[in-house]
């Protein structure tokens, strides 16, 4: 199993919700002097997104090279077209990822930014207002969306920059030889022993060189867990290997708790519920978060392993889409993230083993049907991709 490639001596700042993330992002953009790469799944058309867009325009006016990538499906067809026009008029270079599914079904679900090769951001936050749902309805939320990102300075920023630069080139007109050279340049090698505070690594998932890297990072951390594992995801439909990793950790005495988002998509909730019985039987604790939209994809395992990123615990994130997480090996950072997750758990609703085992036959039938439909869809989408 390949280890995460860690870089030492990084300063990692945990950013909770847009209230912390967007001011930090805009401040970094306003301080840019050379170049900016920004990659996001959703680039909305709301007040928050306009503030980011205006900051990018100001950077261009200072002579900064600004390159933006947004996913065509996540951002929407009409918004992608309007962004193309607006950015072209302001001098921002813009590319839309996989318009009209020309590159297959995979989406670019990453949320990354690098400014001047000095400051980086990785997380789960799209360029969208915290108080607006990120589905097609764009409905107001009862409270700010619960999500996280990290601000990064240090050696890891160079790694992130290389990946963003390569992504930009891949989406342009590249000849076959140039693509092969970029592949060699961005191939991640196995990690070794790293010394120094705030060691961190970029963990990617794509359909070429990093097909299961994020899942393997989770499995390795769970396999070494001895005390506790707190994992958070808005969409939960784990692969067979990840489900077994959670169950085996709980069976050997690790306190495993899942904080899961529910309430956005009825079918997704039913799929998630189909996994509950075996996990609960193995001793995994499950808490559902209903206070507002939970969008965080974060975890803390034992005292010094933590991750923040874009990857959900479902088949699309683990086996189809392009994703990006940061793994942080630092006790102080892990403690801060653990406190945030514990706060979310306190606001959630624990799932009782007894209550769930006494579901009505209608609920059991609905959950089973949803599971069958989901598995059928994933088998079609992931043909040739091995373990599902």
UniProtKB/TrEMBL annotation:
Domain PLD phosphodiesterase positions: 104-131, 290-317
UniProt KW Lipid biosynthesis keyword: yes
One GO cellular component term: plasma membrane
InterPro entries registered for this protein in UniProt: Cardiolipin_synth_ClsB, PLD-like_dom, PLipase_D/transphosphatidylase
GO biological process, one term: cardiolipin biosynthetic process
Topology in membrane: Peripheral membrane protein
Compartment annotation: Cell membrane
Keywords: Cell membrane, Lipid biosynthesis, Lipid metabolism, Membrane, Phospholipid biosynthesis, Phospholipid metabolism, Transferase
Signal peptide region: none
The protein's Enzyme Commission number: 2.7.8.-
Broad enzyme group: transferase
GO molecular function, one term: cardiolipin synthase activity
Pfam families assigned to the protein according to its UniProt record, in alphabetical order: PLDc_2 (PF13091)
Catalytic activity: 2 a 1,2-diacyl-sn-glycero-3-phospho-(1'-sn-glycerol) = a cardiolipin + glycerol
Residues at the active site: 109, 111, 116, 295, 297, 302
Primary location class: membrane
Glycoprotein listed as a keyword: no
Free-text function comment from the UniProt entry: Catalyzes the phosphatidyl group transfer from one phosphatidylglycerol molecule to another to form cardiolipin (CL) (diphosphatidylglycerol) and glycerol.
Family assignment from sequence similarity: Belongs to the phospholipase D family. Cardiolipin synthase subfamily. ClsB sub-subfamily.
Protein name: Cardiolipin synthase B
Organism: Collimonas fungivorans (strain Ter331)
Source taxonomy: Bacteria, Pseudomonadati, Pseudomonadota, Betaproteobacteria, Burkholderiales
Gene name in the database record: cls
